[in-house]
């Protein structure tokens, strides 16, 4: 019996996304860890067992913040062909998205403040469907601008209203 | 452009343009042509203001009697208030009518309105996709109707222009003119569907029949209290409570029966009002739906906007053998606030075989409009085509319809081929979910029983996990049984749902991309979910828990060439 699979898209995000995502995760996790430690220190009688649990929690937060970006970097991929935009993401739940060039209505690039420090940008490709936006994350910002330009040129050359 | 579509409007114009000399001269009309809304609207607003008057009079009477006024004084005050209110409402409407002008030029439909803030609203005629007419009972008495002209775009407030109100003739002329329609090409050959009053038997088959009465009473309780009936309502409530407590064996069944009877009556009345005089016609390039016993509505849907049809069968309706038909169309808004029906609804609940036939016809109508588009290439061996698997038509499809079903598919390509069921793992997944839900409920119940101070909780709480288990198992088995998909010449058909079974036929040319997801547990079962994104309806339609190979091949064949470059086909032995 033959098996059919989706091949991974060709390109990875820029390697700089790993430090960027790490920073993001740390920004998310550090307050959690600090809050846990503070709660333990000020609100409890500091029993040893609970202390151990809090320590494990803090370490888990930090490990997650360090490991998750690397794991995501391994699975996130993208590809743009002449006919379609193709992405894969997700670690536990894999999600593949395909948007044909002929249906693309809008191409956006976005750069957050922290993202800018790393010289990265996201490209979002929107189709007529409310559910069909395809996001390519963590590209080199010049490359992202170039890609957006290319996509816009292709979609403008396509006739019809793309619905 | 489209000048032939502009029909002369002189006969109707005389109706309301009495003091507008411009409207009478064709030459002036071309340059200027601004027309007024129907002046009879004043009468309508006068009548409508009476409701306001009633409320005010009730409040005023209560207040003044509380202040020890004489009856004569109270009557005089009420009369004065009534006159003031009616005058104010009519004056406002007069100002609104005087400041509103509309005109139809060969290029655009324009409306200038606004008493304080002037607005100029303009819709290009070639963008007009719908002209919906709606006449509430009072408007109907005065021969008026409200026309809503839509461009079928989702975006923003500028997609709709409302002329409130026009005379019925004007509105009808406007509808025909805007939609380039000529009398001689009216309905093709009879309506697609027309109301049969026997369908009213499906009206009570909703959850609202059981819960509606209680909800309405609950909703009324507060306002009734506010209008000074609080002593009455609280007395009734306490009497009812006493009755239930003292004689539960008579009171409870009786109350439930009354509740049900009121619910049935309410749903039947609602059905009659919403769907009385229902008629669905196919006109060139569009579908026209007319319905409403008291408030009449006429909705026009451009076939160009149609991307498919949905047959929805909620549990009660399904058990009763009925189904509903809805459109999958672009730019169709969600249910408007005061509407009793979904904007996408094409028909009242009707017998299942008729629903399928209507859906097939509507789908065929949608397909016609695309004929000759570049993606209209013939299919390479569609999965589950009738030739391959003739025996797979669901057993619950009416026998006489099965033949139709297949003939229809061969004939127009718009019908539905046999459904391909999904792998057994899909059912196992659902059963596992039901068991997990049961385990969690059991744990919660055990905790509640251990912690509660009341002994009766401990005695009565144990059936809960059993109910969850039974309902969950039923939903799992039914949900898995209802999973299915099919690929027709024009449509991708998918079906899912245990409580509400939805069968969606999505035009393959309306698919604007794919989202394919595979969760951790799906991956272990060799399943995935493919979701076709589209600009119409909900925005995406899924084929849930389909086998990995089948799903990917299905997606690849539905839109030829789109997914193909990203697939790899191996010949290793599959795990299944």
Question: Major sheet of chain B, described briefly?
Answer: 7 strands, antiparallel
Radius of gyration of chain B: 29 Å
Strand arrangement, major sheet of chain B: 6-5-4-10-9-8-7
Sheet of most strands of chain A: 4 strands, antiparallel
Q: Can you tell me the CATH topology of the largest domain in chain A?
A: PH-domain like
Q: Strand order within the widest sheet of chain A?
A: 2-3-4-5
| Total domain units of chain A | 2
As for the number of domains of chain B, it is 5
What does it look like?
The complex is a heterodimer of chains A (163) and B (576). Chain A is of the alpha+beta class. Chain A contains four helices and eight strands. Chain A has two domains: 11-74; 78-157, PH-domain like. Helices cover 47% and strands 28% of the residues of chain A. In chain A, the strands form two sheets. Chain A has a four-stranded antiparallel beta sheet. Chain A has a three-stranded antiparallel beta sheet with strand order 6-7-8. In chain A, helix 1 (17-43) packs antiparallel against helix 2. The model of chain A has no long low-confidence stretch (mean pLDDT 88). Chain B folds into five domains: 3-37 and 100-185, PH-domain like (Roll); 41-98, no CATH class; 186-371, no CATH class; 372-422 and 483-576, no CATH class; 424-479. Chain B contains 16 helices and 21 strands. Chain B has helices at residues 10-16, 26-31, 41-66, 71-99, 137-141, 168-178, 207-246, 248-275, 315-319, 352-370, 399-412, 424-451, 455-460, 463-482, 520-525, 548-558, and strands spanning 101-104, 108-113, 119-124, 130-135, 144-150, 160-167, 193-194, 279-283, 286-291, 296-302, 306-314, 322-329, 350-351, 420-421, 484-487, 491-496, 500-507, 511-518, 527-534, 540-547, 567-570. In chain B, helix 12 (424-451) runs antiparallel to helix 14. In chain B, the strands form four sheets. In chain B, strands 6-5-4-10-9-8-7 form a seven-stranded antiparallel beta sheet. In chain B, strands 13-12-11-17-16-15-14 form a seven-stranded antiparallel beta sheet, sandwiched between helices. At the A-B interface, strand 1 and strand 5 of A face strand 18, strand 19, helix 16 and strand 21 of B.
